[in-house]
Design a protein that fits this description.
single chain, alpha+beta, Catalase HpII,  Chain A, domain 1, nine-stranded antiparallel sheet, 11 helices, 9 strands, globular
């Protein structure tokens, strides 16, 4: 394991994203002059959803929750981040879709979970989703993907344009194909969520390796048959979450999927080789114990750039855009 730490650290230094293994981590990728802006991405996301007022640009419909985080004994092997190695309160938000009117029964729509660990001095915000890959590897590609799907005057996208873009950019179908191949979950608490980025994690010995974050329900995933899915209401994910919390609590394990030398860390449209069979370490467990008023989550943002020392910034271009994009989205819904 230690050899992997050292090789990953050297590779990150070559990428000019990890100046020192003892530091916070890589600097966020800078945008080139004239590049696609996060504001343009937000505008395209909103256009696809019909420009709803005061709504998030993505994962617009959700439920705010509270709970606690309990670290595992092995967390310190992976990271020195006090967000992940010390107990703390948790504020979280389960969500679905880019349109606030989307039904919970919409099968090809992503589910999301955002959560905040630690205290004011050691805060980390983590964003995970119900697919292990993103739909674009660059901002240029992301904007083109979204613009191809903006509805026309009839309220529908031009499917010839969508098909032509997909044929020219087949990697943008990886996320949709994954979602389509997996049955609808019976609730927010019964599905696995992935962080699609490769995070450089540094432990207390100064050893760094890339990890991917995964949040999995204690007891495993639960799925619905097609017949069961047809009987569900448009609000069933939210109702199920409320019922589970009222009956006790919801428990989710925060896992680190361990990277290996040579893993792709810049392209978020592809998975690591044999990723599902990788060694994983449980960093801790989130215990959701209550529902919070939406204002607790809506007044600010879960900022992916808030990472306590020990978990660094991923080097890919999509992560670099997220902080600015979330700030733009917040400003538009105020």
């Amino acid at each position: 394991m230690h050899g992997h730490f050292r090789q990953d650290a050297r590779r990150a230094q070559r990428l000019n994203c990890l100046p020192n293994a003892q530091t916070q981590g890589p600097a966020v990728v800078k945008f080139a002059a004239g590049a696609v802006t996060p504001a343009a991405i937000v505008a395209a996301l909103k256009a696809i959803a019909g420009n709803p007022r005061k709504a998030r640009a993505s994962f617009a419909r959700g439920r705010c929750v509270r709970g606690t985080y309990v670290p595992s004994d092995r967390a310190k092997e992976i990271t020195k981040s006090q967000s992940f190695t010390k107990p703390s309160r948790v504020l979280g938000r389960f969500s679905v879709g880019g349109n606030p009117r989307v039904a919970d029964t919409a099968i090809p729509v992503l589910r999301g979970f955002s959560f905040r660990l630690g205290d004011d001095d050691h805060r980390s915000d983590v964003l995970v989703q119900s697919a292990p890959v993103h739909y674009a590897k660059s901002l240029d590609q992301m904007l083109a993907y979204l613009e191809a799907r903006i509805p026309g005057p009839d309220g529908k996208p031009d499917m010839e344009k969508v098909r032509a873009f997909s044929a020219a950019n087949p990697e943008t179908l990886h996320q949709a194909n994954y979602v389509a191949m997996h049955p609808l979950p019976p609730g927010f608490a019964g599905t696995t969520y992935w962080g699609v980025h490769a995070f450089p994690a540094t432990n207390s010995k100064g050893q760094m390796r890339f990890i991917k974050l995964k949040v999995a329900p204690v007891g495993g995933d639960i799925t619905l048959t097609d017949d069961e899915a047809r009987t569900k209401s448009a609000n069933f994910l939210h109702d199920d979450l409320d019922d589970r919390i009222a009956a006790g609590d919801v428990r989710l394990n925060v896992m680190a999927v361990l990277g290996r030398p040579g893993d792709p860390v810049m392209d978020v449209t592809i998975r690591w080789p044999d990723e599902d069979a990788r060694e994983t370490v449980r960093l801790g467990t989130i215990v959701i114990t209550g529902v919070e008023a939406n204002d607790a989550c809506d007044a600010s943002i879960f900022d992916p750039a808030n990472l306590a020392a020990g978990i660094g910034y991923p080097p890919d271009e999509i992560f670099a855009a997220r902080r600015a994009a979330y700030a733009v989205s917040l400003a538009k819904r105020r």
